[in-house]
Write a structure and sequence with these properties.
InterPro entries: Band7/mec-2_domain (IPR050710), Band_7 (IPR001107), Band_7/SPFH_dom_sf (IPR036013). 60% of the residues lie in helices and 21% in strands. The chain contains 8 helices and 8 strands.
Length: 304
């Protein structure tokens, strides 16, 4: 009985060591005496103990590789680009992915460097920022074509960061700030110009309305004088006497108005007994002469 147990125990150990589990989204390479034997998929699998060996496990999940590439642009600016490549091993090409490449990450990195240093030197720095999607598409296209032969499918390539030299970034920020200040100054100048134009328009409109008011005022004054002369004429006072009376009345009204305001300035004419009389006679003579001239003009027009 003990001898039977001694035989069963080694058999159980051999069976147990021959069992292995493969996780989901994983493939296992099994070799027999150093030679490829089979590819095992997810689940419980059996291998021959001491004969078969698990050579490696291949993940079928999407993986990501981040690579930083330093290169120079067309305008001689050194820049660092961070490239993120997402790749996946094809289930039907696990053998190629395991046996054809010694170090897949180094191979992919080398292809990324080659593509980036072929594309970026054709662009100036501003275009690198604007056309980063084109760079990513070029990386994905060329890398996908190269890696398919090794069982790798390039799912996506992204340019996640563009980092130029620190001095270049400072200069770019200064240029941007200067451009914004220029735009701000232009807007301020436009606003000031509009303000000046509107102020000039308002002043012109004010002068126009003021001139119209003065003209209306003078027209009403003339109409009032004309009515006053007509009233005096109807009372038997001739035009010369009526004009003299109106002038004297306006003269005393002016003096009264000046006297009512303590801050008024008064210019005094020569103060002699005949000064006011002479001024009145001169004004009346001028008015009479103007009246005669108007009457002569009216007669000449009637004769024509």
């Amino acid at each position: 009985m003990i001898t039977t147990y001694l035989w069963i125990l080694p058999v159980l150990i051999i069976i147990i060591t021959g069992l292995f589990v493969v996780k989901q989204q994983t493939s296992v390479i099994v070799e027999r005496f150093g030679k490829f034997q089979s590819i095992r998929q997810a689940g419980l699998n059996i291998k021959i103990p001491l004969v078969d060996k698990i050579a490696g496990r291949i993940s079928l999940k999407i993986q990501q590789l981040d690579v930083i590439v330093e290169t120079k642009t067309q305008d001689d600016v050194f820049v660092h680009l961070k490239i993120s490549v997402q790749f996946q091993i094809q289930r039907d090409h696990v053998y190629d992915a395991f046996y054809k490449l010694q170090n897949p990450h180094e191979q992919i990195t080398a292809f990324i460097f080659d593509v980036v240093r072929a594309e970026v030197p054709k662009m100036i720095l501003d275009d690198v920022f604007e056309k980063k999607d084109e760079i990513a598409r070029a990386i994905q296209r060329d890398l996908k074509e190269a890696m398919l032969n090794y069982g790798y499918d390039i799912v996506k390539a992204l340019v996640t960061d563009i980092d130029p030299d620190e001095n270049v970034k400072i200069a770019m920020n200064r240029i941007n700030a200067a451009e914004r200040e220029k735009i701000a100054a232009q807007h301020e100048g436009d606003a000031e110009r509009i303000l000046i134009v509107e102020r000039a328009k308002a002043e012109a409109e004010s002068k126009r309305l003021q001139g119209r008011g003065i003209a209306d005022q003078r027209r009403e004054i003339a109409r009032g004088l004309e009515e006053s002369v007509d009233v005096l004429n109807s009372a038997g006072i001739n035009s010369q006497e009526a004009s003299a009376l109106i002038v004297i009345t306006q003269h005393y009204d002016t003096l009264q108005s000046i006297g009512s305001d303590t801050n008024s300035n008064l210019i005094l004419l020569p103060n002699n007994p005949n000064a006011a009389s002479s001024m009145l006679n001169d004004m009346v003579t001028s008015l009479v002469a103007a009246n005669k001239i108007n009457q002569s003009s009216a007669k000449d027009k009637n004769k024509m």
